[in-house]
Design brief:
Shape: globular
Oligomer: single chain
Radius of gyration: 17 Å
Order of helices and strands: HHHHH
Low-confidence stretches: none
Helix content: over 70%
Mean pLDDT: 90
Strand content: under 5%
Largest sheet: none
Amino acid sequence: MEHHHHGRPSLNRLAASATTHCMTGCAIGEVLGLVIASVAGWGTAASIAVAVGLAFTFGYTLTMLPLLRAGIAFSTAAGLAFAADTASITVMEIVDNAIMLVVPGAMQAGLGTALFWGSLGVGLGMAWVAAFPVNRWLIGRGWGHAKVHAHHGH
């Protein structure tokens, strides 16, 4: 028997999807940035700066790609990505980097240690939890990812 979903997905489901989508870009950028900084031997401030910069870059890019493929102009896609992701990525980056800073030795532990990867994993998980209500609130008001979803059939 085929089931059809009538109506719109729940606000919680949309917020979870938006948060997971945002977390994907953040995690890619955060991990890549910390790996680059670690290999380069950069200090904590430079490591965080490159990780945050790449988190925003990848977060916005992942939001823009389907919009650009749908034929939306770059400037419109960029504006939608900025509106959809800025609050969520900001919350995620604050939480994730705060965890990395408060766990003793996590930033200096090195790529080959459980301390580094465990702290990063916990930080990213806590960042998802912190960003979920932000995305839920934005989508509930027709903002954030609600504006992006309107452009690609969600």
